[in-house]
Amino acid sequence: MSEIHVRIITPSGIYKEFDTPYLNFQTTDGDRGILPNHMPLVTSLIIGKMSSEEDGKRNQYAVAGGLLYFRDNLAEVLTDAIENKEEIDAERAKAAMDRAKKRISSTDSNYDMKRAELALKRAMNRLSLVDRT
């Protein structure tokens, strides 16, 4: 069976490489998925989720936006930050969300509102993957 080879690249270098039968991700145009032998694709990723199957197990990732390039069964994900569901520190994400909310509601003109809004979206995205039971 044919698979997609995925290479995830961050500013720190290669985060992870793996083979998967599918890759689902969120783009500026909506939710997308690719299977092996999909036509070439270049798309912008939003702050959102990405999922795949690795070694028979479904994996979910929180992606901080970026770019996905697919060709010849190689998917390269270029992103500033990505975390596997298992790597997410819920307390840290909650603290980041609280800080961002505080900055957004502040009247202090020293805060960059766009930056605070993006921080809030990233924190909420990370928290949405964490099992809160």
Fold topology:
Blueprint lengths: L3 E7 L2 E8 L2 E5 L2 E5 L6 E14 L2 E15 L2 E5 L3 E3 L5 H16 L7 H17 L4
Parallel strand pairs: 1-7
Antiparallel strand pairs: 1-2, 3-4, 3-5, 5-6, 6-7, 6-8
Structural notes for this entry:
The chain is an alpha+beta fold and 133 residues long. It has 2 domains: 4-85, ATP Synthase, domain 1 (Sandwich); 88-129, Single alpha-helices involved in coiled-coils or other helix-helix interfaces, CATH 1.20.5. The protein has helices at residues 90-105, 113-129, and strands at 4-10, 13-20, 23-27, 30-34, 41-54, 57-71, 74-78, 82-84. Strands 1, 2, 3, 4, 5, 6, 7 and 8 form an 8-stranded mixed beta sheet that branches. The longest helix is centred in the C-terminal third of the chain and has 17 residues, at 113-129. The termini are far apart. The model has no long low-confidence stretch (mean pLDDT 92).
The tally of strands reads: 8
Q: What is the fold named in CATH at topology level of the largest domain?
A: ATP Synthase, domain 1
Span between N and C termini?
37 Å
Query: Which architecture name of the largest domain does CATH use?
Result: Sandwich
Shape: elongated
Proportion of beta-strand residues: over 45%
**Secondary structure category:** alpha+beta
Helix content: 10-25%
Number of domains: 2
Q: What is the highest CATH level, the class of the largest domain?
A: Mainly Beta
- The pLDDT mean sits at 92
CATH level-4 homologous superfamily of the largest domain: F0F1 ATP synthase delta/epsilon subunit, N-terminal
